[in-house]
Structures are given as structure tokens and as C-alpha cells.
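Record type: monomer structure entry
Structure origin: computed from sequence
Chain ID: A
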Amino acid sequence: MEYEERPGKAVSGRAGSSRVRKALLCSERPILRAGLARLLGDWFAGEVREASSRHDFIHLLIEEQPEVAVLDATGGFDLPLLHEMHDSARGCQFVLLATQLTPELLHHITESGCCSVVCETSPVELFHATLLAALSGQCRIDSSVLPEGYTEERIPLSPREAELVALLAQGMKNREIAEALNLSVGTVKVYLSHLFNKLHVKDRFELALYALRNMSTLGANLKPQRAEAETGGETNAVILDWHAPAGRRMRTPAGRRRLAP
């Protein structure tokens, strides 16, 4: 089992876990929820609240504003829930218990800076260590929740490339993209050919799939400015590619999407 540590948001004034005033946990499984409550009660001197549904979890986040919250994510987890958690309790550190997460979702979790992930089959000591690390501002990501053997490759796009990919995902034709970006149709075709090679896709459909799966990373590039000249350098808008281990055939983007639980 491997962990990757990333800087997160430290809980101010918390020198140790025993000084946590409020903790929150959520699981739809009663036995697991009871066990987590017992552990958190032993580790933290403060109040431990419990939620049995996602709706109650969000409600308690808003009401209690805990320092740390544990979510059983084995029943499903998605990007809207991550955003809702973050918006509901901005000072909270989250620890997810999971079995497997899609690479795309794990990317957004690590970028949030407030969320750690631990496999639900991990030893209790590792779960405890993850909680303590979260409270000190370290986000720990358990790589065993990824599909076996898959590694991340971040492919940066230039501002113009990101704009073009975003427009393509909206269903625009080459001529429409050219008009929106104040380019010739021929230049758009050259960009597309370059993007096919850069992102390892074979056609517009696969490129659109990549864009849709990574739309939040394209963010600011969704509304191109027609008269603005292309700036140099590369942007933080990235397309995430995921490579199978040696000896295994690479899945197409559509095939990789089926890895989601």
C-alpha cells in the first residue's frame, strides 16, 4: 500500500487529535458507523456526531462545522458531492473510506487540498495516522484505491488548445470553432491533428470524451475571447491520461470510463 502526501489546510490551533472539539462521520452501514464512532470517540476528546445518509451528512457539516469528517464512500462518491462538502464546511478536513475510485475523481480529490483517501480494508493504525496527518495539514492518498496498475499522466494544454477542446466538447463544427476563435478552418484542422497525437486519441469523438471527463480542469477556457491573441506558454488546464501497466493493452477513453465503480 502506498501513500502520496500533499499539502492541505491545517486546522489552526490543533496540536494533537485529542484537542479536536468536533468530529463527524457518515456511513449508511450501521455496523461500520458504530465502529467508526467508537474509534473516533477513543481518539478525540470532543463531540462525535453521526450521519446515516448523505443528506444528513451535509446538513451536519453546515450546522456543526467540524474540524474533521469521515465519509464512507464505498457506496458511491462523485464530484458534485466533493464540491458540496467543501462548500458546507471550508475549515474541515475530510477522510474518505473507499474501495476504488476512478482516476479522474481521485485527481479532483487531490486538487481540493482538504481531502484524504484511505482504503476501507487498511489497518486501523493507518486510518488513525491518516486522520492525524489530515489535522496537521497533510492530505494522504492511498494509491490502492486506483484501478490496479494505472498511473497518472498530466498533459498540459496551451490556452488556445484548451479553448478549442472546450468548444469541440460543445458540439461545434470546425467552421464554428474557427469563427469563435478568429482562426481559419485550416488552422483549426492543424490544431486538431496536433491534439489527436498529443492526447493519444484517434478522432473528434474521443477528444470530446476527454474534454467532458475533464471539464472542470478546462474551467476558465470555456468562454474564449474572439479578439484575444493566443498567449505563450501552457495553462493549468490539463487532460488526464491513464496508462495501463506494461504488457497490458491500453484501453480507449470510452473503455477506461467503464472502470468507474
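Annotation 1: Strands lie at 3-7, 22-26, 47-51, 68-72, 93-98, 115-119, 138-142, 151-156, 238-243.
Annotation 2: Confidence is low (pLDDT under 50) at residues 6-17, 219-239, 247-261.
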